[in-house]
Specification:
Number of strands: 6
Mean pLDDT: 90
CATH architecture: 2-Layer Sandwich
Number of domains: 1
Structural class: alpha/beta
Strand content: 15-25%
CATH superfamily: SIR2/SIRT2 'Small Domain'
Order of helices and strands: EHHHHHHEHEEEE
Length: 155
């Protein structure tokens, strides 16, 4: 069986109604600073704000459906061995029927332990302070965060 690799980003989910980060005046980054919701530093500073941000993204997933692009990519599996590599944290590829999806930036429908990144759980509702793994550590979104600790060198 021939193999196909499909690489997707925010554009494939936009038609489903998923807000993109850099799209317009209403985009997520225009309503939230990266430093406040998408970094380890933000998590240390204001866990509730970070949890709320991702809880809102998770709620949005319940209001949208896969679009034609997701469906067509999933349909490729009828004739090919398909791997989808996506930058998206939504689950629309899986909901359309794709069975081999790699999420580069994490997944909204999962949470993980703050102390052991190998403890990952399916999660479809709000994640709140006090939600803990079986080892007792706080759960956090299973998302790859940006780093603001990079230093730039001036020439």
């Amino acid at each position: 069986m021939k193999k196909i690799l499909v690489f997707t980003g925010a554009g494939v989910s936009k038609e489903s109604g998923i807000e993109t980060f850099r799209d317009s005046a209403e985009s997520l980054w225009n309503n939230h600073r990266i430093e406040d919701v998408a970094t380890a530093e933000a998590w240390r500073k204001d866990k509730e704000l970070v949890l709320d941000f991702y809880n809102q993204r998770r709620k949005q997933l319940k209001e949208v459906e896969p679009n034609l692009a997701h469906d067509l990519i999933a349909k490729l599996e009828e004739k090919y061995q398909v791997t989808v590599v996506t930058q998206n944290v939504d689950n629309l590829h899986e909901r359309a029927g794709s069975t081999n999806v790699i999420h580069l930036h994490g997944e909204l429908t999962k949470v993980r332990s703050t102390l052991n990144p190998n403890l990952v759980y399916d999660w479809h509702d709000d994640c709140s302070l006090g939600d803990k793994c079986e080892k007792g550590s706080q759960l956090r979104p299973h998302i790859v965060w940006f780093s603001i600790s990079l230093k730039f060198i001036k020439n």
